[in-house]
Design brief:
The chain is α+β, with helices and mostly antiparallel strands. It is built from twelve helices and 17 strands. Strand 12 and strand 13 form a beta hairpin.
Length: about 400
């Protein structure tokens, strides 16, 4: 099993990065995770100042042994959340909604939600900003902590592909109590799925059409969608899951993927399929302050606000979180409008439950994207190793984050 691709040594040195360390990092990820059998495959892209420095991949795309291709398609799960957050902020810029608007203004079903198993009242209404930063009081069934998240599991409220329509989904959530009053704590949740329904109701477009017309087409993201088209099935990877016996088994077969099914609800929190090239274009748009190749989605001021810490009183996740699971560790991390934010380095990032991951460093002008298909995402420390390894490879620093 070989590592395919290369570190562009000349480009790396020109960009102020140690090419040897970048090569060593790529080889480490391949050897420690793919060659060892811990991950079925991986694809890694690193760019600085938008110029690719590392583009490598390895492993098999499918159980039948086909090697991973550079244009492979992946279930990016919660890496959908930043796309939905961008869509919502576009509506903010249009003047259709504000961050401090009550969610019930767009979703009247959410007026007067109960709180806790005893059915208490909200101390204040749920606001749109609560959906963006996961302080809404909503939850995920996979948190496995309370009677409320048990009800989410029973009702399938955080399944990737809902059998409900968007209206039915909102009605089912509204019938359940919140874990806490909005703004009191941070809890990773279906908040961004709810935000997707807000985008649909305010824009009058379903989320697929909004994303296609307002984000994907302008950015040239031709291989990102909620429903896998038949002409792309050959590029879809298998997804694998780790069992209790610590062995991998198929979760979803690429050639017969469940992501081909017609959808009633498009999950703004986790429904997209994408590829490395497309997500790099999305990340470049964010790094450039909302614009790419002449297509402007957001103003620089809005993008800067999105990757600032918006947790109450400027606190970090370790002091506010009640989650057992999320796509980040908590110490020293804030949360913005769709991303985790490193309070020291200013990096912002998120990942998906199939172990995909991206980060953007606006100070060092670095983008890192990692793709694989391993469920769950909290088994191997590859994300932390990538972030640490890339920062260690910087020779010429662009600025002081302090």
């Amino acid at each position: 099993m070989q590592l395919i691709g290369q570190v562009d040594a000349a480009a790396a040195w020109a960009a102020g990065m140690d090419a040897g360390k970048l090569q060593a990092l790529a080889e480490h990820v391949h050897g420690a995770y793919v060659a060892s059998g811990k991950l079925p495959h991986m694809q890694l892209l690193v760019s600085r100042d938008e110029r690719p420095l590392v583009s490598v991949h390895s492993g098999v795309a499918r159980e039948t042994g086909e090697p991973l291709r550079e244009d492979a398609l992946y279930r990016i799960a919660s890496m959908t959340k930043p796309v939905t957050s961008v869509a919502f902020m576009m509506l903010v810029e249009q003047g259709l909604v504000a961050l401090d608007d009550p969610v019930a203004k767009a979703l009247p079903e959410f007026a007067g939600l109960a709180v806790g198993a005893d059915g208490g009242r909200m101390a204040r209404p749920m606001l749109m900003i609560d959906l963006l930063r996961h302080t809404s009081g909503l939850t995920y069934g996979l948190q496995r902590q309370t009677e409320i998240d048990a009800r989410y599991r029973e009702l399938g409220l955080d399944e990737f592909q809902q059998k409900r329509s968007s209206d039915e989904f909102i009605a089912a959530l509204a019938a359940l109590p919140l874990e806490f009053s909005p703004g009191e704590r941070w809890n990773y949740s279906v908040s961004t799925d709810v935000l997707g329904v807000v985008v649909e109701r305010l824009s009058g477009l379903d989320l697929e059409r909004f994303f296609r017309e307002r984000i994907f087409d302008p950015l040239g993201m031709a291989d990102t969608f909620f429903e896998l088209p038949e002409d792309r099935v050959g590029r879809m990877t298998d997804a694998w899951q780790l069992g209790q016996d610590r062995t991998l088994s198929l979760y979803d077969r690429g050639s017969r993927s469940g992501w081909r099914r017609p959808l009633r609800l498009r999950s703004g929190g986790g429904g997209l399929v994408s590829c490395m090239a497309d997500y790099h274009r999305f990340a470049r748009m964010l790094l450039r302050g909302g614009e790419l190749d002449g297509a402007r989605l957001l103003t620089p001021e809005t993008v800067a606000a999105m990757h600032a810490n918006h947790l109450p009183d400027g606190r970090d996740l370790s002091s506010l979180s009640s989650s057992m699971f999320s796509e980040a560790d908590y110490a020293g991390l804030g949360f913005g409008l769709g991303f985790a934010v490193d309070l020291r380095t200013r990096e912002y990032y998120w990942g998906g439950v199939f172990s995909t991951f991206f980060f953007i460093d606006p100070v060092e002008r670095l983008i890192g994207i990692f793709m694989t298909q391993h469920f769950p995402s909290n088994v191997h420390p590859v994300r932390a190793e990538l972030r640490r390894g890339l920062r260690d490879a910087i020779i010429d620093r662009r600025g002081n984050p302090d």
